[in-house]
Amino acid sequence: MGELVKSIAKALVDNPEAVEVTEKEESQSVLVQLKVHADDMGKVIGKQGRIAKALRTVVKAAATKVNKHVVIEIVQQN
């Protein structure tokens, strides 16, 4: 799941080298933390959160195939 989020995020941002993804897996759920440069927060979230919602939808569809629940957290890098 982390690689999927990372590849989509790198395609969206101006600073792809600043994209970091960490993944914490538990029994039936996965927490994916996406860190992007401060200037790219708007590009990843989108107007009214549309891009973030679409990203979550794509990852949720991929996670259903492996019977997992995925939570994506978008964080600004310092």
TrEMBL record:
CDD domains: KH-II_YlqC-like. Its main location: cytoplasm. It comes from the Bacteria. GO terms for biological process: cell wall organization; peptidoglycan biosynthetic process; regulation of cell shape. Coiled coil: none annotated. GO terms for cellular component: cytoplasm. The keyword Chaperone applies. The keyword Ubl conjugation does not apply. InterPro entries: KH_dom-like_a/b (IPR015946), KH_sf_prok-type (IPR009019), KhpA (IPR020627). One of its GO terms (molecular function) is RNA binding. NCBIfam families: PRK00468.1 (NF001748). Belongs to the KhpA RNA-binding protein family. Forms a complex with KhpB. A probable RNA chaperone. Forms a complex with KhpB which binds to cellular RNA and controls its expression. Plays a role in peptidoglycan (PG) homeostasis and cell length regulation. This is RNA-binding protein KhpA. It comes from Helicovermis profundi. The gene is khpA.
